[in-house]
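User: My collaborator sent over this chain with a note saying "see what the structure looks like." That's all I know about it. Can you take a look?
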Amino acid sequence: MGEREIQEIRIGVYATEEQARELVERFMLVLCPDPEHAGPCPVPWSIGLAPGEALTDDPYPGLVEQFRIEHGEG
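Assistant: Without extra context I'll predict from the sequence alone. Here is the result:
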């Protein structure tokens, strides 16, 4: 087994704040299906939510355009 190091997984979604927070809750249950367990998780993790305007660059080019096309808004 290789050495552990920090890995980052980013997921961009075009959603309302409420929808994004619901997704965060779901991801948390995937990462730790038993939040009431004793002690730390076997694989340490953290999760965060950043609104689009907080991003310094556009890490998801085309995401808004894709949404508009798929929903007939563009």
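A starting point for your reply to your collaborator: Residues 13 and 57 are 15 Å apart (CA to CA).
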